[in-house]
Amino acid sequence: MEDKKTIDQIIIDSLYLDIERVLPPPLITIQNKVILTDSNYLTISGLPKSRKTSFMQFFIASALTNNAFFGIKTELKKGEKIVLIDTEQSIFDFQKQNFFLKKLVKKNKLPNNFSAYLFREHEPNIILEAIEKICITDKPKIIFLDNLTELVINPNDLIEAKKVTQFLKRISAKYNCGIVCLLHLNKTNGFTLGNLGSYADRGAQSVLKVSIDKETSISTLECTMLRTDAHFNPISIEYNNNENCYHEVENNNTETEKRKKFSMANYTKKDIENRLNIIFEISDNYTYSPLCEELKKIFGVGNNSVKQIVIPYLIGNKFLYSKNSNYTLTKN
Q1: Helices assigned H by DSSP within the chain
Q2: How many Cα atoms within 13 Å fall on the side-chain side of residue 157?
Q3: Mean pLDDT throughout 12-34?
């Protein structure tokens, strides 16, 4: 529940102080690149059965064993806790997932600093309230949310999407923790689902993506955006049925290669309008450089793609209007 503060107190708390600040110790790194620090959240998106939950298990297992898994390292201090919030699995699949985690950490019983909750049958508002209550009682250092999509009734609803992402920002700061959010991808265009996905990616410290090659059953984790560090090399894994475990493999057919074929044709008109509405909710107009920065975040591409593909497409198709070096939404 939102703290009741006067506007004067909010202004005082929000005032920037010009003092030297040090980057907090990372909670999660991949190949020594900073992925998550406290008071932040990250998103991991993927299609169903792409193994995004399996990758999440490696994050958790690393914290519980103090070992790296495929270059994934989660750092916890003694006594710090992890909480897993599941919103969609059946009780059988949830149990199976935790059995797999016990196998990863090589324990018959999961450590006391790990707790898992299944909220599948509850409505989004109940789950949100429960998560904050758990922050108060369990005091976790890292929360894993599988799946963020179930925290809204309609992932395309702007108000719901904004409410959930503000919730993530608020509780991560208030309770000094990091949050890992799993998200579904839209099957038709391969982008995060609805306005919820767009908002969540935009506010995240890191945006990661899991894809699967159906021909080889190789799953790949890679970064779409890292706000704090440089990109890591994609990690590809496959399941060895003989050994009943995952192995890292070489895989040249990664999303990094596919991203070279970035095209605005991959987006529907509604997708583009939703993403632009999020950007222009903050400001009615932008000059060129700030617009580029916002478009890079919302479309998950670099400078060249924004300047050479995104902006020309948006202007040419009358999504944006430019006058005197200012860019605004074209009014219908």
Answers
A1: 7-14, 52-65, 91-105, 124-138, 158-174, 194-203, 255-258, 269-282, 288-299, 303-305, 311-316
A2: 9
A3: 85
293 CB-near residues (< 8 Å, 6+ apart) = none
Whether the CB-CB separation of 199 and 278 falls below 8 Å is answered with yes
Its pTM surpasses 0.90? no
Residue 199: what residue type?
Y
Report pLDDT digits (tens) over 241-254: 888 889 999 865 54
Q: Which long-range contacts (CB under 8 A, 24 or more apart) does 246-253 make?
A: 246/54, 246/70, 248/70, 249/218, 251/213, 251/216, 251/218, 251/220, 253/213
**Residue 11 buriedness (CB in 10 A; 0-12 / 13-18 / 19+):** exposed
Alpha-carbon span 76 to 83, nearest angstrom: 13
**Residue in the block written with tokens 């006058």:** 323
Gap between the Cα atoms of 128 and 68, Å rounded: 31
The pair of three-digit structure tokens given for residue 136, joined into one six-digit string: 């108060």
Whether domain 20-258 has CATH 1.10.287.90: no
The ranges assigned to domains in the chain are 20-258, 264-329
**Which fold would CATH assign to domain 264-329?**
Arc Repressor Mutant, subunit A (1.10.10)
Nearest to 97 by CA among 120, 77, 130: 120
